[in-house]
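Posting this for the archive.
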Amino acid sequence: MINSKDEIEKKLKELTLTQRQQSITHLNKILSLIPEEYSNLINEADKYKRIPKEYLLSAILFSVSTSIGLTFYIDALGYKNYGNLFYIIVGSRGDTKSEALKIATNHLKLEDDNTFDNYNNLVNEYNSDTDKEPQRKQILIQNATIESAHKTHYENPNSIGIYIDEIYTLVEKMSNSNSRDGVEWRTFLLQGYNNDYVDVGRKSVKSFRIKKTYPTLLGGIQNEFVPRLFANGNLESGFIDRQLFTPKLTENNKLIRGKMSEQIISEFTSSAKNILEYKKQSEQKEEPIKRFEIILTEAAQERLFTYTQELIDERVKLLPILKAYNAKMQISVHKLSLVLHMMKISKDMDFTKPLEAETVELAILVNEYFLNNFKIILEENFQKASNEPSLDEIIKKAIKNNANQTSVIDITGVSKGTVSKHWKKIKEEMETGNWKLATNIKNTIN
């Protein structure tokens, strides 16, 4: 709700900005409001490694989300929410996506290195007749089958970070209805976002049950593969609505001598590890309290309430794709509030501090930033610059009018093999209703 002249002027200014300009404005404000140990690292990496600030911000949010685990939660508006979120970084080859992921997760990788060495030592000393089989402690997983991911999460019930440099391979699996691994991956992520249980019972392995899941996701994808991310059930299932997208927004073309400050890296690592240490402590058998509620102030509760109502009011005006995304924003603002609160207290790690209204305001800003990024993804990947119909649209019209493939070949000049391949695909999509996908997306952004 707009209540002042300043807010009206601010809203009018926003309306004159492009989607990218709005996201950059949001990004700069976010960096000015998060703790220095995080923003300094982002600025330092931009200066010396030319890593886009937006990429490292998302990677840091993933790192913090993964470190929190089920150890901390908030209870607001009648719902208990944890900090697990899914992040996808979008760019071209050479955009330093991978380096952003490495910097933000390096302390988690080193922790996994140490626990793997300990696990190997236990395995070498293990006697199957007298000893309990060793379990590997692990934070991040890569290149795992769904069976392996389930098992790893069962052995590490507090959280599991799914960290994939190029997420396209996983997307291809999830888009293939004949891939049991892919279908189960998508189900796991859909259920895990809401921290639902997973019960595994297979002939090949001993059955087990994860009573409350906590997967986080960080992956990179190249621009040309984004449309496939939306295809074959990923949009309809709700997988897309759960993603926080980060397109490339900034670029530093100035090469500079020198390297990143060790002190700045150390300050970030120290704060990030403080969060992780609390999760590790809660995992100890002798620890009586496994989970801690972060209390919200009355003002924070009220701001969450009013913002959620604003989202609900806005939702009725939206077309399907943004309407579905809006519904998940009502959840992600809770999750982001917790993540940002933990970042704020990570230096001294006093988790008795309440979550305040200004942190909710920051979470709202981050939530709206990711919404705007999502609109950029839609606009730049699905809006056609030309009004000329595509080959797929011509084929669809031909099928509707009972024309044959020869007619399409004559009209377009496209080879018989290409037309035949597209014809089969479009016919299947029309029969299953998937053809509505592209139309809905274009209608949403126009």
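The chain has a mean pLDDT of 88. The chain has 17 helices and ten strands.
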